[in-house]
Amino acid sequence: MPELAHIDIIAPNFKRRLSGVTATVARLVPLQAQSIAITACAPEMPDEVPNVHWSRLIGMSRKGPSGPRVWHARRNVEMIVGLALRGLLGKRLKLLFTSASQRQHTGLTKALIRRMDAVIATSAKTAEYLERPATVIHHGIDTDTFSPHPDKTALRAELGLPAGPLLGCFGRIRAQKGTDVFVDAMIRVLADHPDAAAIVMGRAVDKDQAFLDDLKARVQSAGLGDRLLFLPEVPVWETPRFYQALDIYVAPQRWEGFGLTPLEAMACGAPAIATRVGAFEELVKDGQTGTLIDAGDVDQMVEAAQALLSDPVKRAQWSEQARAHMIDHFQLKQEADAIIAIYKNLLSD
To answer: Is residue 240 within 8 Å of 261, Cβ to Cβ?
Structure first.
């Protein structure tokens, strides 16, 4: 547990349940800690992540070793706590906010953002919803962990997955994520490609259980229960192996803030079929590393999947190009270094 007197940067994450923000903090902070004095402030973090309990914030020194500390918020509640620490408790803080939202902000969020010292947007589209200048920094991934597997056939056997061409869709199972669009499209695609299979991997919370049950019923009705599989959510450290087993990844979301899954899949060599939501248009090079389609359009998804399944040469070419694109533009270290540059500017101001 780090000593706050020696810390310049605090990255809070006040949500206990796994989320995109939790994953972002867990990925970035250990890497950034190699070159700057940073800690997370979260209920739970993996052992390798420097982390302090929120209760220690009240008694921490007014300033850090380099002067005012940087408080890097990623949610409203964390902006509010940063403002309270600075305004009510007299802590010397520079407030930084990262926005991933692609919708009109509420009045509260707008008011909070106006009081930040700097703002980061995770995509150009996200920046368009902000009413003040922001630095665009895309999320990155660990391209060593997310990398192609040397023997995809053996890996599928090890994971208990079908041997033929495999398509996948990972994440929360609910209408917003477009899981129903993926299932409806795969029912049609698998009927025309008897050697192919597809997997849905993730979980449905209680309110979405009926949605999931309906999807499973559609698959059974189509007679595809052994080729369109529903797999439970796995721990984050196991997900790279499932990406590595895929030939094609599908991101069918109807709405998304950013969306890391296509990056992780492409880094593992799986071309992505992705909807034009979130940052996907900035991540997927249409016709080179994957295909962009309209959200909710089953016909377009079917056409895109059919085209790749029917052309192994194109699929192999796009696989190589997808991996190269991730290495060139979306490495986690690139994201970490770009954010550290913002930290240093705030610390020296």
So the answer is: no
Percent of the chain with pLDDT over 70: 99
CA–CA dist 212, 227 (Å, integer)? 17
Evaluate if residue 298 carries a pLDDT over 70.
yes
pLDDT in tens, 126-161: 999 999 999 999 999 999 999 999 999 999 999 999
Which domains, ranges and CATH numbers included, belong to the chain? 4-140+331-348 (3.40.50.2000), 152-329 (3.40.50.2000)
Rounded Cα–Cα distance for residues 78 and 75 (Å): 5
The C-alpha atoms of residue 179 and residue 162 are separated, in whole angstroms, by: 20
Tokens (6 digits) for 303:
């056409």
CB 282 within 8 A of CB 138: yes
| Contacts within 8 Å (CB) and 24+ apart, 289-293 | 289/318, 289/321, 289/322, 289/325, 290/249, 290/262, 290/266, 290/318, 290/322
How far is Cα 317 from Cα 46, in angstroms, rounded to an integer?
Answer: 37
